[in-house]
Amino acid sequence: MDKKILIDLSKFRVYSDKSCDNTPPEGFFTNSPNTIGFKSIREMAIFQFTCRKCEDAPCINVCPFEALEKDTEGMIHRHTNLCVSCKSCVAICPFGTMMSDFFKHIKNKDLFYDLSDNHELHKFIKACPIGAVSLVDMDENPDENIYKLNDQVLIKENIWSTEKQ
Ligand code: SF4
Ligand code: SF4
After folding, report:
1. Domain 4-156, what fold?
2. Quick one: three-class SS letters along the chain?
3. For the chain, which residues make up each domain, given as ranges?
4. Which residues of the chain are under the pLDDT cut of 70?
5. Is the shortest distance between the CB of 76 and ligand 1 below 6 Å?
6. Residue of 43, 44, 47, 52 best suited for mutating to test ligand 1, as the one with most atoms within 8 Å of CB
7. Proximal ligand: closest to the CA of 86
């Protein structure tokens, strides 16, 4: 694939906030170490870019099944085999990092699209909220809030920072 997949997280957030019945599709890559436990691109992006990496992370503390863990870089990971979708972590996060629909898909594999497959990729784009996913010919550009998730995916998100502009 020459073009990159650009995912605009704000468009997903608006879509999810409109109604708790709104369940957007999820994209994932097969044969990628990042998809261990069937994690969606959106989950990876949110923990990498949206999460503020709290020192004493309330999401980890509240999880009744020890499904969340912080790595040495301070990034949160969810063990999908332990998570029961109780959403306590969603409710307690003071920054609204996770979208309300975030862990809905655990049992609904129909909403997952394998982005390694060109046909599924196009179906995924069509199924997503309008303008939320597009194919682009560009690289990471922090001035436009566009960041590299991996070699194939760019994420558009307003990232919180303590650095003075
Ligand atoms: S509470 Fe929210 S912002 Fe803090 S580490 Fe957990 S997910 Fe990230
Ligand atoms: S949804 Fe519940 S079980 Fe899953 S990670 Fe969050 S707090 Fe833990």
Report:
1. Alpha-Beta Plaits (3.30.70)
2. CCCEEEEEHHHHHHHHHHCCCCCCCEEECCCCHHHCCCCCHHHHHHHHHHCCCCCCCHHHHHCCCCCEEECCCCCEEECCCCCCCCCHHHHHCCCCCCCCCCCHHHHCHHHEEECCCHHHHHHHHHHCCCCCEEEECCCCEHHHCEEECCCCEEEECCCCCCCCC
3. 4-156
4. 1, 20, 31-38, 104-108, 162-165
5. yes
6. 52
7. 2
